[in-house]
Structures are given as C-alpha cells and as structure tokens.
Amino acid sequence: MFSEWPDSFGWTGMSLVLASGLVMVWREAVNARPRVAPLNSPR
What we know:
By secondary structure, this protein is mainly alpha-helical. It has one helix at 8-32.
C-alpha cells in the first residue's frame, strides 16, 4: 500500500487541487487589499 506511487490520474487530481487552492489564496489576498480611488476621479 505505501510502497506504490500514484498513477497519472492521481498526479493530475493532486495538481488540480493544489492549483485551485493557490488560486483561492491569491484571490482572497487581492480582494483583501483596500481599494483606492484613482487620483483623477471626480469627487
């Protein structure tokens, strides 16, 4: 059981889970930044 390596479907699934987690972390970091109005916007 523990002496076997995952097949191509296993590696593909693991990479998809890892990539989606990284995208979620990146999106949360982008959305957590305060939004600043551009300097040339009318007030």
